[in-house]
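Batch manifest, entry 17 of 40.
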Amino acid sequence: MNDRAVSVLSEYDFEVIRTWKGRGAILFETPEGIRILREYTGFTDKLERQNALLSHIREESGIPVEAILSNKEGLLWTKDQNQNVYIVKTYFGGRECSIRDGEECRQAMRLLARLHKAMVMPTEPEAETPACRVDKEYEKHNRELRKVRRFLRAKGQKTDFEIYLLKHYDMFMEKAFAVTERWNACRKPDFYERITRQGIWCHGDFQYHNLLYENNDIAVINFEKCACDSQVRDVYLFLRKLLEKNNWSPAVGDGLLEAYQRERPLSEEELCQLYYRLAYPEKFWKIVNFYYNTGKAWIPGRNMEKFDKLLKQEKDRELFLHTMLPG
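Output type: structure tokens
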């Protein structure tokens, strides 16, 4: 982030004492405390709903969450001279959640459950946000998987990585298609309509680096991906990340789910959703997507390492999924 971004701060009605660079952002001190300036690439009309949700969470749960600050014109966003959009938010210090500390991770799951209970905010019918649709997301992934397989098969001279990838490609693609079909079969017809109508929201990016520990509090930040969607989306993301780090250990998974359900029990429908989200081979799609959308003349060795690790963990993943098969 360059110094031109700092000029945006003149559009806000507070005194800036000093500024310094953070990770992908600019931090600055004011008499009221530390604030953070970030570039924003989403839709600006979403910011009002996002800030209303953050206020709702604070009132309903007391969980420390950020707030987006208005500029002198009362807007939650400001453009620089190059028409880049920026937002200013309150800032929390502290350290990130440690993914190697089992108790901290279970504490994070309990916090997520409390957060979810507060993230129910019906809106006016004309302001309703259409629910995110995992079925559309998976169908898009499946089309991309088909396209890349055609590309690989037609490619003449293949690298070792491409030969290795193609050798195992059909196994993962069949799983992706089967999960999408079963998800569509088990999903109730009014699933997405209920989420929108009831005003059920999820964080959208609930990961360890968005959880900051300071003293006895845990603050939750970076709600830019919040959306009307099943709250299972957050449970799945946090759970999958930790399971991948722990070779899909049933003990780790059970402990995390138990921690969440002590605060907010998952319904049978939600457990079914969680199973199919975990069953979709998203990590494989990510590796394929990264490969296809980067220069193929030079393929980083990291690609091979990630795919090799994925293959080694696949049996453990299948065993874990077997323990939570829907009835």
